[in-house]
Design brief:
With 319 residues, the chain is mainly alpha-helical. The protein is built from 15 helices and 6 strands.
């Protein structure tokens, strides 16, 4: 009998609003979690952990000569450490310890990751677990840009550096928008519903009555796949969709669209304009773009704080 079978004997069923399954495992709805009773919170934490980690005997290579597992996919992972890292800010230490004790009750103290298949998006995109993560990742990238701007480089290298940083600022904005939308459609069923209702790609799809339940079961994955394929610098399409789905105002995009057109030449014409002339990005232009990108993100963050106050109430972050 495996550990999951052991849990099935007594574990309660989580309601749909508790969270959603993703390619990386179960994602907990923090708003639901904060209002749930202790037993349901504990079950949500169990589900989160057991959707990500399992007995290394399942697929981890074993070194018979040395007498130990070869954790080629990462690990070994400790249940207490992983659960405390994820939930210590929203769950009591007592609740977490109850879950840890149950998880290790069959004697498994070192865990292996379940999701080991290589995936381009998973390799290059950090997992968003909290409402503040998109802004956190965005801020980290801005700090990296600031560090590179301060480098003392040769004059002939500076044009390329500034072009790359200019492009990176737009990419940071794209990533923020995707992370934000991906988080909210995962943790809030109302946002997911509004997204599907307002997205032209889903609106035009036909559905037979006999397919309803199968499509509902697969809907989260379909939305995830769509978001991964969306061209996020097309602000004229992206911002109305975000605004309608999250029920927030639409920040103006005109200034940023001018920068995005310039970034297109940097990325797709190797830094030249359509007439073949090399583009020159000054430090003033770079700083101006950064200011506008930060202002744009801060407007969205302000509206999200007003729209979802319970989600942000325990997250201390300045913007």
């Amino acid at each position: 009998m495996g550990h999951n079978d052991h849990l099935e004997d007594y574990r309660p069923d989580l309601p749909p609003e508790a969270g959603a399954n993703s390619r990386l495992g179960f994602q907990v709805n923090h708003e639901w979690f904060m209002d749930a009773d202790p037993e349901m919170r504990q079950e949500a934490m169990r589900t989160w952990f057991l959707s990500r980690y399992w007995d290394p005997a399942n697929e981890t290579p074993y070194n018979g000569r040395e007498g130990g597992y070869l954790y080629v996919y990462g690990g070994p992972f400790d249940a207490s450490e992983q659960l405390n890292d994820q939930f210590s800010d929203i769950a009591s230490g007592e609740d977490i310890q109850i879950v840890v004790d149950d998880i290790v009750s069959e004697g498994i103290l070192e865990w292996a990751p379940i999701h080991t298949e290589p995936d381009y998006d998973e390799e290059f995109q950090a997992e968003v677990n909290r409402c503040t993560d998109p802004l956190l990742f965005f801020t980290q990238r801005l700090n990296e840009v600031d560090s590179l701007k301060a480098l003392d480089v040769e004059p002939q290298q500076q044009p390329l550096l500034f072009q790359l940083l200019y492009s990176s600022l737009i990419t940071a904005l794209e990533t923020y928008l995707e992370d934000t939308m991906s988080f909210w459609v995962t943790v809030d069923n109302k946002v997911l519903r509004k997204f599907v209702v307002n997205c032209q790609e889903f609106k035009k799809q036909k559905l037979q009555l006999s397919e309803i339940f199968d499509r509902m079961d697969a809907l989260q994955d379909e939305v995830d796949n769509y978001l991964q394929q969306l061209i996020w610098h097309r602000l004229d399409k992206v911002i109305p969709l975000i605004s309608d789905s999250l029920d927030i105002d639409r920040p103006p995009i005109e200034k940023l669209m001018q920068h995005i057109l310039l970034r297109h030449d940097i990325v797709h014409r190797s830094g030249k304009d359509k007439d073949g002339y090399l583009l020159s990005i000054s430090i003033e232009e770079l700083n101006q773009l950064q200011k506008e990108v930060v202002g744009f993100v801060n407007k969205i963050e302000s509206m999200l704080h007003l729209r979802f106050p319970d989600q942000f109430s325990d997250q201390k972050i300045e913007f």
